[in-house]
Amino acid sequence: MIKGVLIDLSGVLYVGDAALPGAAEALERLEAAGLPVRFVTNTTRKTKAALLAQLRGLGLPVAAEDVFTPAQAACDWLAAEGYAPHLLVHPGLEPDFADCATEGPKAVVLGDAGEFFDYARLNAAFRAIAGGAPFLALAANRVFKDADGELSMDAGAFVAALEYASGVKAELLGKPAPAFFAAAAASMGVELAQVAMIGDDAEADVAGALAAGAGGGVLVRTGKYREGDETRVSPRPTAVVEDIAEAVELILR
Amino acid sequence: MIKGVLIDLSGVLYVGDAALPGAAEALERLEAAGLPVRFVTNTTRKTKAALLAQLRGLGLPVAAEDVFTPAQAACDWLAAEGYAPHLLVHPGLEPDFADCATEGPKAVVLGDAGEFFDYARLNAAFRAIAGGAPFLALAANRVFKDADGELSMDAGAFVAALEYASGVKAELLGKPAPAFFAAAAASMGVELAQVAMIGDDAEADVAGALAAGAGGGVLVRTGKYREGDETRVSPRPTAVVEDIAEAVELILR
C-alpha cells in the first residue's frame, strides 16, 4: 500500500526546456487522490527558488514545501551538528545556505560547481578536510548531459579527487544516500516502506530508493533512460513504464 | 650483486634550494666505481632541461642521459603505439612533448598541472577518454609539500576524478609503475633484479621498486621521510640509512 510518492525532476517531469506530455496532469491526479509527494533532485546549480520558478514556467504544479533538495539536507545537518559551511558549490546555489552559521568550525559542502571547480578552490577544500573538517557531498553523480548534448563531468568526479587526496570518505547527502530518501519520506509523515520512487535514473533513483527500503521503484523510459538500464542495476525496478503518466496510473491502481 | 642504481631526486639529492650534504660526492663515488645510474623522478612541472639546469646549479654532477622522466616514458609510449598527445600537464612540461606526433588519434597524458587543473581542461580530457582515447598518467601522487610548507593536492587526485567520471583506469607511467622501473633499468643495459633504488618515499620509490623486481631498495632518512615510514610499507626496504652518502657506501661495500 503506497502512501507517498518521491519523484525525480529532470527527465521525469521535463527535459531541457519542455514539460513532458502528461506530466502536469499526472501531478494533478496524485493531488486529487490525496497522496503526498516530494520532488527529489540532485541538481545543485540553482537555488530551490530558481528551481520552483522554472517548474512553474513549464506549467508544472509544484509546491515549494514539496521540493526536497540535498542543499536543504546539508543545512539541516550543519545546524544539527553545529558547523558553518565551507562551500564548494555553484554560485547559483549559494543563496540556499544564507541562513547557515558563519562562525565556528567548518564543514566542507561540495556540490556540482561546474566551471567553478578550479585548483585553488579544490585545494582549499582539500586543506580544510585534511585539517579535520567533515566532508559533505550534495551529489556524487559521475556525468550529466551538458547543454551541448554531450556528457560532462559531474560532482562525483571531484568528490573522488578530494577523497583520494585526503583519504577521507565524503558523507553523501543526495541520492542515492539512504538517509536522503528516509528524510524525504519522513517529511511526508510516512514510512519509506510505504513510498514509491519514480525516476529515470535506474541506479541513483530507483535501485537507490529500493536499497534504502522504499516500498516501490518505478523506472520511466524518458530522460536519461537507455534501453536495458533496468537489467544493469540491483535491486531491479518494481516496474518499468513509458512515462510519469503511466507511473502514476500504476501507483493509483 | 648490484650493477646499476636508480636514484630519486627531490629529498634525496636536494631539499628545496639546497643540495644535501655529501650528495655530490656520493654521485662522484658511483661514477668512479663505474656503476651506471638513472635519476628517476615523478616531478612533472618542468622540462628535463630545466631540471638539469637546476641540478647543475646545485653543484650536482648529473648527465642529461642519466635522467629518466615519466614524460620521456610517455613520449616512448606514444611513438610506439602511434598516438599524438592530448596534454593535461603543467605548461612548464609541455616542451618535453615537442617531438611527439601532432596528427592522428590522441591519447590523454595527465601530469601535475597544478593551478592549470580547471574544469574546462579536465572536462576536455574526460570527453577524449570517454570517446576512447587511451589515458596515461605521468604520476598518481596524492599530495606534495607546497611552497607555503603545507600539503597540496597532487596529480593523483585528478587521475582519480577522471577515472571516476569515465570508468577508465589510467595507465601509470611514473613511479611506482613496474614498467617505469623496468624501462629505467633497461636503459642502463642491466636487469632490474641487479638494480638498487635509493629514495625518500618508502612507498612509491622503495616498496614500488622492490615490488617491480628490483634487487634492492634503500630508504634514506632525508626529504619526506618520517620516522617509522619503513614499517608502513610492503615489501619493507632492504636497508634504511641516514642519507645518500650512506646509501652509496652500503651499495659499494
Could you explain the architecture of this structure?
The structure is a homodimer of 253-residue chains. The first copy, chain A, is an alpha/beta fold and 253 residues long. Chain A folds into 2 domains: 4-42 and 175-252, Rossmann fold (3-Layer(aba) Sandwich), CATH 3.40.50; 73-172, Rossmann fold. The first copy, chain A, is 34% helix and 19% strand. Chain A has 8 helices and 14 strands. In chain A, the strands form 4 sheets. In chain A, strands 5-4-1-12-13-14 form a 6-stranded parallel beta sheet, sandwiched between helices. A 4-stranded parallel beta sheet of chain A has the order 6-7-8-11, sandwiched between helices. Chain A has a two-stranded antiparallel sheet with strand order 2-3. In chain A, α2 links the parallel β4 (37-40) and β5. In chain A, α1 runs parallel beside α8 (244-252) and α6 (178-188) packs across α7 (202-212). Chain A is globular and about 55 Å long. The interface between A and B is medium-sized, with 31 and 31 residues.
